[in-house]
């Protein structure tokens, strides 16, 4: 963790800039899009700092980088969501969750975690359903399925009972849960009712989630270094 901390300093600074400027969402602009996306750009740099060869040779890391790229595009679309780009943002983040799920992998399977995540996802959609109309009725269902699947794969990697876990797997799990909290807050605020301090909750949990998921990409390097020391 200590070795990765300095590489995240630009991310923390960019996040502080976003919260200090706190640009009004009612006035979308390319500048506000840049400020919102800047912390995600810094996470690109964080992963690239590990070397191009590392990203090329480790598919999970390269898929997380690709997910961050689609996230930034989704963030930009959501700046103009009132102009009709909300669905575009939804699509970009849907692709992000597919990439993250692929990065986390299908082993171990952990069907209990899958069942738990299925119940949580179904309950969330059941609550939202009565507020949805038109294409959002099925688009939100697909999106919840994708983020729920991503959460399952992240959760499955943390085998606490068997001591088969690492700090990076735990990072991925916590990051996925925070991502779900962020997106659920968006859904409640967008379709159901105004959520107090919604923007603060959404962005704080979102940036933390992306940072933790980016951190999980360094696991392959940790394992590689361990094998060399052994």
UniProtKB/TrEMBL annotation:
Predominant location category? membrane
Topology of the protein relative to the lipid bilayer: Multi-pass membrane protein
Q: Which domain of life is it from?
A: Eukaryota
Name the chemical reaction catalysed here: a 1-O-(1Z-alkenyl)-sn-glycero-3-phosphocholine + H2O = a 2,3-saturated aldehyde + sn-glycerol 3-phosphocholine; a 1-O-(1Z-alkenyl)-sn-glycero-3-phosphoethanolamine + H2O = a 2,3-saturated aldehyde + sn-glycero-3-phosphoethanolamine
Regions that span the bilayer: 30-49, 61-80, 86-106, 113-132, 138-155, 167-188, 200-218
Q: Where in the cell is it found?
A: Membrane
Transmembrane as a keyword of this entry, yes or no, is yes
One Pfam annotation, family name?
A: YhhN
A GO molecular function held by the record: alkenylglycerophosphocholine hydrolase activity
- Name the GO cellular-component terms: membrane
UniProt keyword annotations, A-Z: Membrane, Transmembrane, Transmembrane helix
UniProt EC number: 3.3.2.2
Family assignment from sequence similarity: Belongs to the TMEM86 family.
* Protein's name in the database: lysoplasmalogenase
List the source organism.
Bombycilla garrulus (Bohemian waxwing)
- Organism ancestry: Eukaryota, Metazoa, Chordata, Craniata, Vertebrata
């Amino acid at each position: 963790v200590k070795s990765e901390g300095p590489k995240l300093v630009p991310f923390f600074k960019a996040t502080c800039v976003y919260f200090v400027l706190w640009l009004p969402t009612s006035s979308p602009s390319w500048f506000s899009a840049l400020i919102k996306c800047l912390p995600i750009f810094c996470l690109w740099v964080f992963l690239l700092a590990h070397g191009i060869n590392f990203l090329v040779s480790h598919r999970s890391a390269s898929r997380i980088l690709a997910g961050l790229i689609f996230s930034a595009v989704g963030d930009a679309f959501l700046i103009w969501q009132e102009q009709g780009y909300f669905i575009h943002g939804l699509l970009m983040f849907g692709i992000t969750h597919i990439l993250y799920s692929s990065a986390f992998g299908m082993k171990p399977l952990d069907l209990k975690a899958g069942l738990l995540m299925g119940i949580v996802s179904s309950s969330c959609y059941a609550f939202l359903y009565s507020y949805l109309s038109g294409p959002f009725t099925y688009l939100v269902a697909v999106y919840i399925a994708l983020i729920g699947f991503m959460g399952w794969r992240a959760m499955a990697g943390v085998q606490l009972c068997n001591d088969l876990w690492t700090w990076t797997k735990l990072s991925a799990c916590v990051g996925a849960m925070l991502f779900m909290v962020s997106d659920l807050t968006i859904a409640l605020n967008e379709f159901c009712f105004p959520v107090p301090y919604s923007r603060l909750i959404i962005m704080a949990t979102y940036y933390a989630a992306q940072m933790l998921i980016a951190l999980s990409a360094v696991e392959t390097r940790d394992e590689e270094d361990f094998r060399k020391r052994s």
